[in-house]
Amino acid sequence: MEAKFYGLEKVIREWEEAKRDPEKFWADKSKVLTWFRRPDKIIEGQPPFEKWFVNGFLNISYNAVDRHLPDKAEKVAFYWVNERLESKAISYRDLYCEVNRAAYVLRELGVKRGDSVSLLMPSIPEALYFSLAAHRLGATLVIHYVGLSAETLSYRLNDCDSKVMVVASKGFRNGNEIRIKDFVDKLLNEYKTPVEKLLVVKRGYDDFNVNSRDVIYEEVKPRGRVEVDPVAVESNETATIYYTSGTTGRPKGLTHSNGGYLVALNTAFKSIFSPKGDDVWWTISELGWPVWPMANVYVIPVLGLTGVLFEGFVGYKSDLFSRIIERFGVSLVWSSTTTLYTLKSLGEESVKSGDLSSLRMILNTGEPLNVGAWKWLREHLPAVYIADAYWMTEHLYPVAATPFGIAEIPYKPGSAGSKFPGSEFIVVDDEGRPLPPKSKGYIVLRPNNPALAKMHKDLNGEKMVKTYWSRFQGYFYTGDYGYVDEDGYLYVLGRADDVISSGERIGTMEVESVVVTHPAVAEAAAVGYKKEGGEGILVVVVPKKGVSESHQLENEIKEYLRNSGYIIDRVVFVRRLPKTKSGKIMRRLLRALARGEEIGDVSTLDDPSVLEELRKVLAQ
Ligand code: ATP
Ligand code: MG
User: Fold this and answer.
1) For the whole model, what pTM was predicted?
2) Which atom of ligand 1 has the smallest separation from the CA of 478?
3) Top mutation candidate among 245, 363, 513 for ligand 1, by most atoms within 8 Å of CB
4) What's the number of CA atoms in the CB half-sphere (13 Å) around residue 468?
5) Which comes out higher in pLDDT, residue 344 or 32?
6) 93-131 CB burial, b ≥16 within 10 A, e <16
7) For 121-148, what is the mean pLDDT?
8) Is residue 247 lining ligand 1, measured as CB closer than 6 Å?
9) Ligand 1 neighbourhood includes 417 CB (under 6 angstroms)
10) Quick check: CB of 200 below 6 Å from ligand 1?
11) pLDDT at 545 over 90
12) Are strands 41-44 and 51-54 parallel, antiparallel or unpaired?
């Protein structure tokens, strides 16, 4: 393809090279890691059954900590900060000592290579120590969301078979104290789980019950220097299990490997951020969203950078975002569209309450980047490049993104970005035939990279084939709907399940990206709505603060959308949209409630109390 502007040419050249010779491309990228034994073979077999870096042995914790000691021992590996701006700096030497202590205790509790260790904590330094400690022993790390229901969490503990679980006694978010240990006690008493030992990290207080299965970390933590040898694991052994967000249905458990996954992630971030030695990278995410470990466990320390661990909610105070950036000189921010939208709704103060001159890039992930939030950020932070990366738990390597680390290319509002070297997407029609630019269709992948996950407990790959490879022969199906423009930029228009068939097939994002530019609208979701003779469009609107809902506003929004070519049947106003823990809108709930159907799995619904209002409003 011929590129219109210089940067894009470079990106496409690299993309073509990676496609022509993936073995060479990935062999080269694997050098980002220190291997105890170099792989014999780069790729063996075909997706989804392929293996990567076969017979290569490595240890994640060694790559993240030990190898930096000779030249970065005094460098700050992480800053920790909370909503009250209390903070702490952790050097690479500190990280080494703490990871070894944590690994020592886990080993004493019986954890060994191949076992799984579950973690339930806020974003505190111990979360990082225990993540890396689990990897030091060659164990599988499973990080859970604080706030999942007891039923969902007990299902996951059984699914991943963790005998050891590490928790913090408490967490703090949005000014509230969350009593994690009390919640877990109740869960372990009420549900059958494999957990035999509960390792508790005390946070200042000890007003919790201590049971026979409990081990209090402070009481068993070695005081002096301990060293635990990093266990060498084969590249294809499982490093971690993630569960999908549950946006379109029941969450799926996916496993990522030690070698391929790490190579893919580090390659991705080198291409997106092109991190430099003095970069300070803040990932605004809770622990349970894969984004947190992706950055803080598998990339920042592996590349020897400095990260910021933030405990709390960035919208807690309107000046928090600015203050944290100024305090630590943050240069890279990785976050979700929900968080960016939160900043916008807090108003100018959120980006003007400190010196933000260190900030050079903001990266979005998780949902299409809200065009309104993007415009607002551009206006207030004109020197900051706002980028996007589109990926999924099954394929933690960008499908499309803005690889600013390769070349300066413009971000096009509404798009997920351009082709990304090492990854290949194609937009196809119902029959799986590739479509020309500008035609809407299903997004499928030819994943020729080491980032494709395996499904958990799917030994012969049957479940994987059935779930992802059967809809379109020869392709991995993303479940997303979109189109490509003439420059090869990909536009994700929404989930294929959510496509509205109102004459033409319309992706939810097409409508939503217009509604959110209306001055009275803060957030919105569009879904198909059954009406006589077909499907109509229902728009669920969260009005801006201070705006009162009215029949007039309803008509005004309809009119506004009509001017952009969308005929809306119904507009309703709500105070909050139903979102997953990772901040994604659960449109299937809106659709089901509007149609009077079963709502299905809500195990990852962030705040189930939203259902009450939605039921009332949508049932009419
Ligand atoms: P489930 O698979 O359980 O329904 P989920 O798909 O939301 O949940 P994730 O793996 O966390 O679970 O999310 C991946 C999905 O998120 C993608 O398939 C896509 O729909 C959406 N997504 C992620 N990043 C972007 C982005 N930058 N632009 C557009 N969409 C994105
Ligand atoms: Mg999905």
Assistant:
1) 0.96
2) 18
3) 245
4) 26
5) 32
6) bbbbbbbbbbbbbbbebebeeebbbbbbbbbbbbbbbbb
7) 97
8) yes
9) no
10) no
11) no
12) antiparallel
Q: Which residues, in sequence order, are CB contacts of 24 under 8 Å at separation 6+?
A: none
What residue type is 424 in one-letter code? E
ipTM entry: 0.99
**Residue 370 scores a pLDDT above 50:** yes
Which residue type occupies 571?
V
CA of 251 to the centre of ligand 2 (A): 8
Give the type of residue at 484.
V
Output the CA 367–ligand 1 centroid distance in Å: 6
Q: Which sign, positive or negative, has the C-alpha torsion 199, 96, 266, 310? A: positive
Angle, vertex CA 287, rays to CA 283 and CA 288, nearest 5: 125
pLDDT digits (tens, 9 = 90+) for 391-430: 999 999 999 999 999 998 999 999 999 999 999 999 999 9
> CB of 478 closer than 6 A to ligand 1?
yes
Cα 469 to ligand 2 centre (Å) = 14
Categorise residue 160: left if φ over 0, alpha if ψ from -120 to 50, beta otherwise.
Answer: alpha
Ligand 1 pocket test, pick from 242, 392, 394, 512 with the greatest ligand atom count within 8 Å of Cβ, gives 392
- Please give the average per-residue pLDDT across 14-32, as a whole number: 97
- Distance from C-alpha of 609 to C-alpha of 604, rounded to nearest angstrom: 13
DSSP symbols for 474-542 = TSEEEEEEEEE-TTS-EEEEEEGGG-EEESEEE-HHHHHHHHTTSTTEEEEEEEEEEETTEEEEEEEEE
510 lines ligand 1 (CB under 6 A): no
Instruction: List pLDDT tens digits, range 209-265.
Output: 999 999 999 999 999 889 999 999 999 999 999 999 999 999 999 999 999 999 999
Owner of token pair 């294929």: 496
Q: Are 372 and 239 in contact (CB under 8 A)?
A: no
Q: Distance (Å, rounded) from C-alpha 290 to C-alpha 241?
A: 10
C-alpha closest to that of 64 among 39, 38, 100: 100
CA of 124 to the centre of ligand 2 (A): 28
The pair phi, psi for residue 159, each rounded to 5°, is -60, -40
Cis peptide leading into residue 48 (ω within 30°): yes
- Residue 244 Cβ inside 6 Å of ligand 1? The answer reads yes
Does 318 have pLDDT greater than 70? yes
- To test the pocket of ligand 1, the residue of 152, 256, 286, 391 to mutate (highest count of ligand atoms within 8 Å of its CB) is 391
- Quick check: CB of 339 below 6 Å from ligand 1? no
Q: And the tokens for 151?
A: 């039923």
Residue 329: per-residue pLDDT: 98
Q: What is the pLDDT of residue 529?
A: 85
Which ligand 1 atom minimizes the distance to the CA of 401?
27
Pocket of ligand 1 contains residue 390 by CB under 6 Å = yes
Given ligand 1 and candidates 240, 286, 367, which is best to mutate, with the most ligand atoms within 8 Å of its CB? 367
As a 3-state breakdown, the chain gives helix, strand, coil percent values, each rounded to 5, of 30, 25, 40
Task: Say what percent of the chain tops pLDDT 90.
Answer: 90
Please check whether residue 409 is in contact with residue 5, taking contact to mean a CB–CB distance below 8 angstroms: yes
**Ligand index nearest the alpha carbon of residue 246:** 1
CB of residue 389 inside a 6 A radius of ligand 1: yes
204: Cβ contacts below 8 Å, ≥ 6 apart = 170
Residue 52: which H helix or E strand, with range? strand 51-54
Which ligand is located closest to the Cα atom of residue 444?
A: 1
